[in-house]
Amino acid sequence: MFGRIQPTPYDVCFRIFGIPVRINPFFWLIMVLIGQNFMHTPVSAIAWILAALISILAHEMGHALAMRAYGYWPAITLYGFGGVTTCDSNTYGATRTTTSKIVTTAAGPGVGFTIFGIILFVKILLLPPGTITLSGIINSKLAVLFTPVAYTKAPFLNALIELLFIVNLFWSFLNIMPVLPLDGGQILRDILVKFFGHKGLHATLIISVAAAAIIAFFAFHQWRAFFMMILFIMLAVQNFMALQAYERGQRY
After folding, report:
1. Rg of the chain over CA atoms, in angstroms?
2. What is the residue extent of each domain of the chain?
3. What is the DSSP string of the chain?
């Protein structure tokens, strides 16, 4: 998200479906800090770390498998506030079409929303009839979505599934925000550039700065989400600097 992530001696490296995965040590640190409200016991702490790892890795695998479907060879890095999926610059870039860019970008949150939807479907089946209704959700009675459910006879698995439900919902929703370099921002940029050329990039940067600032404001004043506030302040600053550089380049 914030540039190339350099390898360290403490990275955890492995492959899934032949796709290389590298986990930077700061990923574990940030996940622990973000998950303080879910880590009341050693067991719940392990459940949180697993849920965060599985959810973010699944998100990046969505990008990676879509890239693979288009004939590219991706690699995944998990770090800090999330993850990034990249391809060899010699084979990935100018050859992509707008459609392939949007598909590969949307595949990440698409996987997350799919996991959320599957668990929600099971939750609806297990809860008493009428507990979760479409009208209730439409009327913003969203708290009912987080009613605990006994999916299995194992408390640890129940906690893990419930956390997967929460993380995939919020991580996917966060990533579709129209802020570069989040997935929503990239999709917005690709669409606007397709129709308006360089003016589309300029508009995307302006929207990214405004949206990031608004989200950071609500994260602090309404949701008390400290790390979310920090993330979007960083994104607002990053996009503002990119906007200034773009406008200087256009001016000269």
Report:
1. 19
2. 178-252
3. --S-----TT-EEEEETTEEEEE-HHHHHHHHHHTGGG-SSHHHHHHHHHHHHHHHHHHHHHHHHHHHHTT--EEEEEETTEEEEEE-TTTSSTT--HHHHHHHHHHHHHHHHHHHHHHHHHHHHHSPTTSS-HHHHHTT-GGGGG-----SS-HHHHHHHHHHHHHHHHHHHHHTSS-TTSHHHHHHHHHHHHHHTHHHHHHHHHHHHHHHHHHHHHHHHTS--HHHHHHHHHHHHHHHHHHHHHHHHHH-
pTM recorded for the entire structure: 0.90
The angle that helices 98-126 and 183-196 make with each other, rounded to 10 degrees, is 140
Distance CA(157)–CA(151), nearest Å, equals 8
List the one residue out of 171, 178, 180, 182 whose CA is nearest residue 111. 171
Q: At what angle do helices 155-175 and 42-69 cross, to 10 degrees?
A: 50
77 beta partners: 22, 84
pLDDT of residue 126 exceeding 80, the answer is: yes
Which pair of structure tokens corresponds to residue 176? 């579709």
Give the tens place of pLDDT for each residue, 27-36.
999 999 888 8
